[in-house]
Amino acid sequence: MKKTNKIAIPFVLLIATLLVSGCQKKKVECPFTTLSWGSTLEDVVELEGECEESYDSVYGGTTYTYPKEYAGLNGTIKYMFDDGERLVCLSWLYEGNDSEDLNSTYDKIHGEAEKMLGESGYQLNSEKFAEAASPNDVWYMESGNVVLTTVDTGEVKALQYTFLHPDVSQEKPEK
User: Fold this and answer.
1) How far apart are the C-alpha atoms of 115 and 43, rounded to whole Å?
2) H-type helices in 72-134, by residue range?
3) Which tens digit of pLDDT belongs to each residue from 36-66?
4) In a 10 Å sphere around its CB, with 0-12 CB exposed, 13-18 middle and 19+ buried, how is residue 108 labelled?
5) Residues 6+ apart with CB under 8 A from 150
6) Residue pLDDT, tens place only, 10-22
7) CA–centroid distance for 13 within its chain
């Protein structure tokens, strides 16, 4: 019986560990950078080099921008810090050539986002708004919201893919 306990106890602990780890929420990784919420400005500079441009962040700190290719497209990555020098927002901005380019880029990135995150919790691209608004999506995640927005006007054709820290994310609105 002692032999059985020596085998059974580690086996039960292994199964329990696998069950607990399988039930935990999947941490969402930002696909256009290897940095995470614990990263510092020094980490950003180490990864990206000296920044091309910086300006005030909407979170009370500074935004640092760099040219960044993502999904085979040239764009700009923005690392936004709050007033406590914490990284709270990661965004990738793509400026399209025309509406067709913007829409195909949205479809491509939206498809990749849905594979990674599932269906979004909010979409402003229903038939009701089809002519008045560009497609926009929000995924409400425990690890922070993910927002995919487009702007399509006469002068601007842009897509922004944003990952927000949980501290600056809003809750899903009630219907």
Assistant:
1) 28
2) 99-117
3) 999 999 999 999 999 989 999 999 999 999 9
4) middle
5) 102, 106, 134, 135, 136, 158, 159, 160
6) 333 323 322 233 3
7) 35
